[in-house]
Amino acid sequence: MSVLERVINRTVRRERQAPEPCELCGAPLSGAHAHLLEDRHERLLCACRACALLFERGAAGLGRFRLVPDRRVRITGPPPADLGIPVGLAFFVLKADGVVVAHYPSPVGATRWDLDPGAWERVTGRYEPLGSMRPGVEAFLVAVVRGMDERWLVPIDDCHRLVALVRGEWKGMSGGTELWTRLEQFFAELARKGGRHGADPGGQA
């Protein structure tokens, strides 16, 4: 068995010495690190640089794990109404079978349902970054609420962080002041990490 096969098939050890280990090889992680998506359960795994490099170079492209990219693109559009969004905060994930699932962060986690295929096709035809969105590992994130107007193509792990933030900070009926402050900080962080603006062929903000 090759080194690569041992990494992919290794059972994650139950007992760790490091507080945050690589979930493939068990090596300790320091600070920011990569994530892999396990396709079968749609579960994110923390990965050290060495394990992430195997997938980044394509050596493990046929395995059950996929490397989550580090691309963040701010998009000038589409208008939320074009996607039939009933709430101001949502993200959209393209599945391998072409279905697009809408997720809405809430105090109890993320609710979800399938998006109208026609609406997504019309949007991706007008906004090039969305047409290049990678199934499962990237998402279109929209926040048009409480004075925010944010639309981003982001790694799926950013959306997981957002769901955890909303669930952990929500208070009362409206979420509470602290939650909305934290959300503004979340999008400010996205701007620092990415910040490239996508084209707006329709001329709409």
Question: Which descriptors would you attach to this protein?
Answer:
205 residues, alpha+beta, 2 domains, 7-stranded mixed beta sheet, 3-stranded antiparallel beta sheet, 6 helices, 10 strands, 29% helix, 24% strand, disordered N terminus, disordered C terminus
Question: How would you sum up this structure, described in words?
Answer:
This protein is α+β, with helices and mostly antiparallel strands and 205 residues long. The protein folds into 2 domains: 3-67; 73-198, no CATH class. 29% of the residues lie in helices and 24% in strands. It is built from 6 helices and 10 strands, in the order H-E-E-H-E-E-E-E-E-H-H-E-E-H-H-E. Strand 8 and strand 9 (150-155) form a beta hairpin. The longest helix is centred in the C-terminal third of the chain and has 17 residues, at 177-193. The radius of gyration is 18 Å and the shape is globular. Mean pLDDT is 80; it is low at 1-8, 10-18 and 197-205. Pfam families: DUF5947. InterPro entries: DUF5947 (IPR045991).
